[in-house]
Design a protein that fits this description.
The complex is a heterodimer of chains A (224) and B (378).
Chain A (H helix, E strand, L loop, with lengths): L2 E12 L2 E13 L4 E5 L6 H8 L7 E6 L2 E2 L5 H11 E4 L11 H11 L4 H14 L15 H13 L5 E5 L7 H18 L2 E6 L10 E6 L2 E4 L2
Parallel strand pairs in A: 3-8, 3-9, 6-7, 7-8
Antiparallel strand pairs in A: 1-2, 1-4, 4-5, 9-10
Helix pairs in contact in A: 3-4, 3-5, 4-5, 5-6
Chain B lengths: L1 H36 L4 E5 L4 E2 L2 E2 L5 E2 L2 H8 L3 E11 L14 E5 L4 H5 L4 E6 L9 E4 L1 H7 L6 E4 L2 E9 L4 H4 L1 E5 H7 L5 E2 L1 E6 L5 H11 L3 E4 L1 H44 L1 H9 L4 H39 L10 H4 L2 H18 L1 H8 L3 H8 L1
Parallel strand pairs in B: 6-11, 8-10
Antiparallel strand pairs in B: 1-13, 1-14, 2-3, 4-12, 5-6, 5-13, 7-10, 8-11, 9-10
Classes of the chains: A alpha/beta (224), B alpha+beta (378).
Chain lengths: 224, 378
């Protein structure tokens, strides 16, 4: 999946004041690349990823996926792209607390309408790949935060996405676990040729990225 | 905990609807049944006597010979039977808000006109054959309550009576009836040579309406009521009762709807991150909608099932309290007091109410967006 954004702006209106979270951002994300977007808290990283991940509508500007303009797609069409072509990893994991690890991974496949047996087999395989084959039936509250993020990564991979969007996936983790998660994402990128776009405020963990962008006050710049 | 309280609330609402609904339905059915006994006949009672369907509920009697007078003087009359109808023999000296039993005093030669083809239980026993005997026939519910059988001797106001038959009937009135010869009833209840009802059967082809006018013109101190008039008298009251019942049900259902909606709105609000996550990973809106509706319908299922169980018990307890008939005696007839169709109707209604109560929270859940939720959290 190749994504291009052009002059993308997102303005939030709070009462009479306006906050420009993303200000005329432009970038290209090539297939099979690992891109890092680095910036401090409140710089607009999450807003940018929400726009790229079609979870939010831009105030102005365009988003192209494989050269097709998707800025104004209906919510149903955006939903399909998110379900079948993208995977999401959040800072706070966002696992469903009532489901165990296996069910959380199966959920994406169930939403995509995959057969029950295929869901189970693939979820088992993915959880084994992220090193959680002994934690299958544990609910999120019974897992460590590193394990929760691994489950979230397994969920993101469930529908064989062309792109993983990871919003500060290491934000809640200690440095050792953070390195393990980055290594996991990097491995997926290299092995599966899955594009990874990751936002982080920690410049130390982005060394492995193919491309690095910085964002400050909503303004996006390539890091030279 | 909140969901359990919500289920309890729905269960209580269902209990109330079932208990009140079944109780009022039972009494309206009993009142409607009363006319079955005297179908096609005219009831003659003393003027100004209050009559519910076929049952005079205030005192007022006339000579028994009035029946012969009516038959002799009015040519459209086929048969005229004097009846003594007494409500409530208090076998146990207990305060009883609803008459738990009735006495029908009927001339022995007229049994069939009054009781139709009502058989005797197990084809055992017989109807009294002698006007001056102390023999009675009783309803099955009375027999079961007091363990009376054919041959048992019972005391009513110091008279020893012998049970010679037990009616085999499901009619509420006859179920709780002591049927005896007219002369015996006159003696026991101190109505010498009197009756308080005369049932008049018109000759075939003659209208009940014209006959009542003839009777009232010739005998000024009586009222003659056709079957339709008796129905018309009680119908507005029954309609009022049914309207009030419907009103109460509606209010209770609306309260349940508000309860389910409020609790589910809170629940959805607390789980906004979960719903936003579902949206972010591409869950179809219909999936999110169904998820919430499934939750509220489960509340309806559980609350409804519990409520129907406890409501049915409550209806039995109310029936027992109002009639002083032991609770155990109502258990075998639970499905007569709370008909299965009524249970099903209320169950379906409460499930639908809960589903409807889930619509607004479900729409809220469908609107949860990850960008907004995360922005609100940080």
């Amino acid at each position: 999946m190749k994504i291009r954004i052009a002059d993308l702006t997102r303005i939030y209106r709070l009462g009479s004041s306006e906050i420009t979270a993303v200000d005329k951002a432009s970038l290209e994300i090539d297939e099979a690349k690992f891109m890092a977007i680095v910036g401090p808290s409140g710089s607009g990283k999450s807003t940018l990823l929400n726009l790229v991940g079609l979870n939010d509508y831009p105030t102005s500007g365009k988003i192209f996926i494989d050269d097709a303009d998707v800025s104004l797609l209906s919510s149903g069409e955006r939903r399909k792209i998110r379900l079948f072509r993208m995977g999401f990893v959040f800072q706070t994991f966002n696992l469903l607390p009532t489901l165990n690890a296996l069910e959380n991974v199966e959920l994406s496949m169930a939403l995509a309408g995959k057969p029950r047996r295929e869901q189970r087999e693939k979820a088992l395989r993915l959880l084994e790949a992220v090193g959680l084959s002994d934690r299958l039936f544990h609910r999120p509250k019974e897992l460590s935060i590193g394990e929760m993020q691994r489950v979230a990564i397994a969920r993101a991979l469930a529908n064989d996405p062309e792109m993983i969007i990871a919003d500060e996936p290491t934000g809640e983790l200690d440095s050792k676990t953070a390195k393990e998660i980055i290594a996991l994402l990097l491995g997926i990128n290299r092995r599966e040729k899955t594009t990874v776009v990751m936002a982080t405020h920690d410049e130390k963990i982005v060394d492995a990225a193919d491309t690095i962008y910085t964002i400050q006050d909503g303004k996006l710049k390539p890091k030279v | 905990m909140r969901t359990i309280l919500c289920i309890t609330g729905v269960a209580l609402a269902t209990t109330f609807v079932i208990a009140v609904g079944a109780t009022t339905m039972r009494y309206t059915t009993v009142i409607k049944e009363m006319n079955v006994l005297f179908s096609g006949q005219i009831m003659v009672v003393s003027k100004d006597t209050i009559v519910i369907q076929a049952i005079p509920i205030t005192r007022g009697s006339f000579p028994e010979s009035l029946a012969d007078e009516i038959k002799g003087n009015i040519k459209e009359v086929d048969e005229a039977v004097p009846v003594l109808f007494i409500t409530s023999i208090n076998f146990e000296n207990v305060l009883q808000p609803v008459p738990p039993n009735f006495t029908l005093g009927i001339p022995v030669e007229q049994w069939r006109m009054m009781l139709g083809s009502t058989p005797l239980r197990g084809n055992v026993g017989r109807f009294p054959i002698n006007e001056s005997s102390n023999e009675v026939v009783i309803g099955p519910s009375l027999a079961d309550q007091y363990d009376w059988t054919v041959g048992t001797r019972i005391n009513v106001t110091d008279y020893e009576l012998e049970i010679v038959g037990i009616l085999d009937t499901r009619l509420a009135l006859l179920n709780r009836c002591v049927v005896m010869p007219l002369k015996l009833a006159q003696k026991i209840y101190n109505y010498p040579n009197s009756a308080n009802v005369i049932t008049v059967k018109p000759l075939q082809g003659y209208s009940q309406k014209n006959l009542t006018e003839s009777i009232e013109n010739q005998i000024p101190y009586v009222s003659a009521l056709t079957e339709d008039e008796r129905n018309d008298m009680v119908q507005p009251i029954l309609a009022q009762v049914e309207t009030w019942n419907l009103g109460i049900q509606t209010v209770v259902f609306i309260m349940s709807l508000i309860l389910v909606m409020t609790v589910t709105l809170m629940s959805v609000s607390e789980r906004r991150r979960d719903f936003a996550t579902l949206d972010a990973i591409g869950a179809p809106l219909s999936h999110v909608f169904r998820l919430v509706i499934l939750e509220t319908s489960l509340i309806g299922f559980l609350g409804g099932a519990l409520g129907i169980f406890s409501g049915s018990l409550a209806a039995l307890v109310l029936a027992s309290l109002y009639t002083s008939i032991p609770l155990a005696q109502f258990f075998p007839s639970i499905f007569e007091i709370v008909p299965p169709l009524y249970m099903l109707e209320i169950f379906a209604a409460i499930v639908v109410v809960c589903c409807v109560g889930g619509v607004v929270p479900a729409i809220n859940a469908m609107r949860m967006r990850i960008a907004e939720v995360l922005r609100a959290e940080y």
